[in-house]
Write a structure and sequence with these properties.
Layout (H helix, E strand, L loop, with lengths): L6 H7 L9 H18 L8 E8 L5 E2 L7 E2 L4 E8 L6 H7 L16 H8 E11 L5 E9 L3 E4 L10 E9 L1 H4 L6 H11 L1 H5 L6 E5 L3 E3 H8 E4 L3 E5 L2 E11 L8 E6 L2 E7 L11 E2 L5 E9 L1 H6 L24 H15 L1 H21 L8 H6 L10 H28 L9 H37 L11 H8 L4 E2 L22 E4 L19 E10 L7 E12 L13 H13 L3 E2 L5 E2 L7 E6 L4 H9 L3 E2 L5 E6 L4 E6 L1 H11 L1 H7 L5
Parallel strand pairs: 1-9, 14-17, 21-24, 24-27
Antiparallel strand pairs: 1-4, 2-3, 4-8, 5-6, 5-8, 6-7, 9-10, 11-13, 12-13, 13-17, 14-15, 16-17, 18-19, 19-20, 20-21, 22-23, 25-26, 26-27
Helix pairs in contact: 1-4, 2-4, 13-14, 14-18
Length: 680
């Protein structure tokens, strides 16, 4: 019993991704190129002519986008007309057209699905054709093709005066029309790249143009497109041969991404981005004359022809095989690896130059922006970390950070393995492995230290900017400076040890039992006070020492640090607004006793607790008066005052913002110099 084929069912089951909206048009162009080949052969291919017309909706639309009302947009594309002077729809070609899955042109890679793709993307197709019969008489035919009526022959007269065909693809369906390029230039480039084999082959291609409001020659595009041809090469992968057409595209080409085109049946099937898949292969490369180019490769083989899917959008080939390789099964990964090896050979000099440029880019970034990576930079290079010289700083930082994390994870795994062997009989290479592991850990720790020191440099730079006057002559509020030193209205129970930058004042402030910032005295467990006054910063440091020795117990004895911060260049210090007196008052309240540590342990009253008061304020006339009144001495550099208040038993230091920054920078100078960071 004969089987009946449903055209509607076949079209419904034919795949056409929205990402390939021009594939039906490209298939029509390929058909026309083959028809021209059949008529003229290799010797007279220049007599061929192929014209692609873009058909647009006659009703103009207005674009109310960024340019504003009144800018006329390109009318929507409703179809295409493909006109050639090829052999035409001869009886043999017509019979093949009316036979689904015909193998009439199988030797040319045709699968008989091109016309199904036409109906997938367009509502209807109309064809006029002329051909020479066996008596060299010109014959014509006209027919329509649609899902509803299938092939419908007409009696319309055909105006063609020589052999050829006009294929009208009409009614561009919205889901594909929206995804398709809108300009003639973009459409011409997509057609060109899809059919480039016909332009690269010996003898070249017939004259091919795209007609819209302008006429674009694809042959001229070939001249504009290709900078130079590298030698075509052949590689063999697991017994299968693959031909590589290697091109250097001109730097003016819009798409500067290196690409691999997987081809079948003289058509592009897959476009693959090669960026980063070889060290140094990113965007444009430079040849020996420093001219820029973009590398592309067109890959073809009988193997790809035999395994391309019917819709020509993919291959029935495994990307990779899980686990161990199974015999001689060939995967796309196998082919890709061989292609990249060949590209490495072909582009050795440009790639080496690009790698050197990338290394310089990394070294410059690490030296000036991210010194934390310097201790491990050599190891990151061994991991194969290479970069595009044009990469943004933010992207480069993320790349280096990801690879540093990988290095740390690998070191953790190696450490576990090394120490697991410590109790067993040592292997011959145990000492070498242990030394290598310890060296890696040392470099990672140096990287962490570099990150910490770099952060200090940035914090000092920010503080320097905060104390400068703005364009209006004003200064930052004290809360801006305060928040940089430590977040406001927080205490030790709310922030981590790394959240504050009190090292700017004194490195010892990193070691504290309790720390409060802009909190009321009443809310602090260390004061026992009902006062709602808010010291800028107060800290207690617990030091083990003998107390109540007869009972054999030791209790913590607190040292107290109080910090007051004033607005840069503030000049209103007075008897009522005396920051020195405020600090001493806070000290007295903490010393009064009957209060608890942050962990809830009682602190005995002690008038001997060491206390340190820091006032950060510029030495305006009013501030200098308060320092003199407190009997403080001026520092040798003239940028601060210091002294010991005997009644309060407290060390007091008043420092200007400039002295604060200078002192912190000097303390960190050795670290900055070691990392190559500026110290001022």
């Amino acid at each position: 019993m004969a089987l009946t084929t449903s055209l509607a069912g076949r079209v419904r089951n034919t795949s056409l991704p929205k990402s390939h909206p021009l594939l039906p048009l490209q298939e029509a162009v390929i058909n026309s190129l083959q028809a021209i080949d059949e008529r003229f052969g290799d010797d007279d291919i220049g007599s061929g002519n192929l014209r692609i017309r873009i058909l647009r909706d006659g009703q103009q639309e207005f674009d109310y986008g960024p340019a504003g009302p009144g800018r006329v947009a390109l009318p929507p594309i409703i179809g295409f007309s493909v006109e050639d002077n090829g052999v035409g729809f001869t009886p043999e070609n017509m019979s093949s057209f009316e036979t689904l899955d015909s193998d009439f042109k199988a030797d040319l890679g045709s699968r008989g699905v091109g016309r199904l793709l036409w109906l997938k993307a367009f509502d209807r197709v109309a064809i006029d054709s002329a051909y020479f019969d066996g008596h060299d008489q010109l014959q014509t035919r006209s027919f329509k093709f649609s899902v509803e009526r299938e092939v419908e022959h007409g009696a319309e007269s055909v105006s063609l005066t020589e052999a050829g065909a006009v294929v009208l693809l009409d009614g561009f369906k919205s889901q594909y029309q929206k995804s398709a390029p809108k300009t003639a230039d973009a459409i011409a480039r997509e057609i060109f790249e899809h059919c480039i084999w016909y332009f690269l082959r010996p003898g070249g291609a017939p004259e091919v143009t795209v007609v819209d409001e302008e006429v674009i020659s694809l042959n001229k595009l070939m001249e504009d497109f290709v900078y130079s041809e590298l030698p075509s090469t052949t590689i063999t992968v697991k017994g299968q041969k693959f031909d590589m057409v290697n091109l250097c595209l001109k730097s003016m080409t819009r798409n500067t991404i290196p690409r691999l085109y997987w081809c079948a049946a003289n058509r592009v099937v897959i476009e693959e981005n090669l960026s980063g898949k070889l060290a140094g292969l990113y965007g444009r490369l430079r040849d020996s004359t420093s001219a820029e180019f973009t590398y592309v490769c067109y890959l073809s083989s009988d193997f790809l022809d035999a395994n391309v899917r019917a819709d020509r959008t993919a291959f029935d080939i495994e990307e990779r095989l899980p686990g161990a390789a199974l015999g001689d099964d060939l995967t796309l990964d196998d082919v890709r690896a061989a292609v990249l090896d060949e590209v490495e050979r072909l582009l050795e000099e440009p790639l080496n130059a690009a790698r050197e440029e990338g290394r310089s880019r990394v070294n410059e970034f690490v030296s000036n922006r991210a010194p934390r990576y310097r201790p491990v930079l050599a190891r990151l290079t061994k991991l194969g970390v290479t970069v595009d010289p044009a990469m943004k700083d933010s992207e480069l930082e993320l790349l280096l950070h990801r690879n540093l994390q990988k290095l740390e994870a690998d070191a953790l795994v190696e450490g576990q393995a090394v120490f697991a062997e410590a109790g067993a009989s040592p292997l011959e290479d145990y000492k070498e492995r242990l030394d290598s592991y310890l060296e890696t850990i040392k470099e990672i720790n140096q990287s962490d230290l570099a990150a910490y020191v770099s952060r200090r440099r940035v914090i000092l730079d920010i503080l320097t900017k905060l104390i400068r006057s703005n364009d209006a002559g004003g200064y930052s509020r004290e809360d801006a400076v305060h928040s940089l030193l430590i977040p406001m209205r927080t205490d030790s129970n709310e922030i981590g040890t790394d959240a504050s930058n009190l090292w700017i004042l004194d490195e010892r402030l990193a070691f504290h039992d309790y720390l409060a910032s802009d909190k009321t005295l009443k809310s602090m467990p260390v004061t026992g006070s009902d006062s709602t006054r808010e010291p800028d910063i107060i800290a207690t440091r617990l030091v083990d020492g003998p107390l109540l020795a007869s009972e054999g117990e030791t209790l913590p004895l607190p040292s107290i640090v109080v910090v007051e911060i004033k607005r840069p260049m503030r000049n209103d210090a007075s008897e009522d607004k005396d920051p020195i007196a405020q600090c001493l008052d806070y000290v007295a309240k903490v010393r009064s006793g009957g209060v608890l540590t942050a962990s809830g342990r009682p602190i005995p009253a002690s008038q001997e607790s060491p206390a340190f008061c820091y006032i950060v304020a510029d030495l305006t006339p009013s501030m200098v008066n308060r320092c003199n009144y407190a009997n403080l001495r001026r520092t040798p550099d003239g940028m601060g005052f210091f002294g010991f208040n005997e009644p309060a038993k407290a060390y007091v230091e008043v420092m200007s913002f400039d002295r604060l920054i200078n002192s912190a920078t000097e303390r960190n100078r050795a670290f900055f110099d070691k990392l190559g960071l500026p110290s001022s």
